[in-house]
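ugh ok fine here u go
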Amino acid sequence: MRVTEDEMQEAVKLALEGTHNVAEGAAAAAHAAAFKMRHELRGKKVVVAHSGHNIDRNTLRWALGMFDA
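structure:
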């Protein structure tokens, strides 16, 4: 499954809002892929590996739409 940077950016926001955890690149990609497949996954048990919290302040601000990186 391929996801775009825009989808990963949105996934950082969704993970923060939904789980109260910060997602770095790898975790954001997993969240974005699951979100992209949400209709196919509906009603199924799904596990998303939320790895690490290795995201710098500027990348987080960019993902949250606070400024362009």
